[in-house]
Amino acid sequence: MKFTAAQIAGILNGTVDGDEGVEVSKLAKIEEGSEGSLTFLANPKYTHYIYSTQASITIVSKDFNAENKLSTTLIRVENAYKAFSQLLEYYNQVKMNKTGIESPVFISESATYGDKIYIGAFAYIGENVTIGQNVKIYPNVYIGDNVVIGNDVTLFTGAKIYSETIIGNNCVIHSSVVVGADGFGFTPNEKGEYSKVPQTGNVIIEDFVDIGAGTTIDRATLGSTIIKKGVKLDNQIQIAHNVSIGENTVIAAQTGIAGSSKIGKNCMIGGQVGIAGHIVIGDNVKIQAQSGIGRSIKDNESVQGTPALNYSDFNKSYVHFKNLPKIMERFNIFEKKLENE
Questions:
Q1: Mean pLDDT, rounded, of the chain
Q2: Residue 307 domain-assigned?
Q3: Are 198 and 288 found together in one domain?
Q4: Is residue 56 domain-shared with residue 105, that is, in the same domain?
Q5: Which residues have a catalytic role annotated?
Q6: pLDDT tens for residues 208-265?
Q7: Is the pLDDT score of 322 beyond 80?
Q8: What's the EC number here (predicted)?
Q9: Do residue 150 and residue 270 come from a single domain?
Q10: Assigned domain for 11 exists
Q11: 93 burial via Cβ count (<10 Å: 0-12, 13-18, 19+)
Q12: CA distances in angstroms from 257 to 32, 139, 282, 303, listed in the order given
């Protein structure tokens, strides 16, 4: 896809300073710009690159004043960073604007779907599935029986959606995500062997949820595992059976949440956090990376460490911990003095 400076300025409500007809077909960092590429300047630390960049077009804020000669055409906007983000979103929409049904696919006769749908090759859609409008299902996606998918949803290549799952509107589910697999439920018998506890519930994903590649969300034993509106999940996260995650909570990669724990709204959870089962984490909680959470946490707390402490207490304790060898050395000297008295 090629765009002229004039077309891009129209999309961004900007003005062109230079050649309106110059074309670009790719994006680049300002320091790596080449002919035919589009870049932007938002951080003043990178200003010197604008005089050497080979990018054909550079997006800048309206108040930018060039101190040297430029070889790049400028598009002046109110806010260069926001404008470039807007352009990336537009670019993705154009790039991903696929429609139609490829071949081969399997679509059950009892499945229904709305207008402007895209179904990629080798997708499987099971019995009694309901799919809304403007949904994109990329190749090798599996959708089990009785699944409900809302409008404007994207399922990327290789996503697996088990039976009975409910997905709301405007959700994005990336490659290799598994939604609705059995929860980790086993019970020991008198012989020390384990018998499987049937997992008869489902997963409910509300509107505007993003789920990163390789993340797994288990179905409930009874009832539902619930991911509420606006939640953003990074790659390779494990969410166990009957977990509930509140609105607009964000969770970074490799976090694991054990069964039946409840997480509030507007929480921020760092990478590689481990959360034990059957605990409650309140609203607006911040958990630093690699923390181990074995207790319930009240609203608005910020914690770190394993087991997790109040964030401020952890930092104070760490000062003493890193000085522990020196402290012990002083202690040993003092102890010897006492022995010699």
A1: 94
A2: yes
A3: yes
A4: no
A5: 241
A6: 999 999 999 999 999 999 999 999 999 999 999 999 999 999 999 999 999 999 999 9
A7: no
A8: 2.3.1.191
A9: yes
A10: yes
A11: exposed
A12: 41, 30, 15, 16
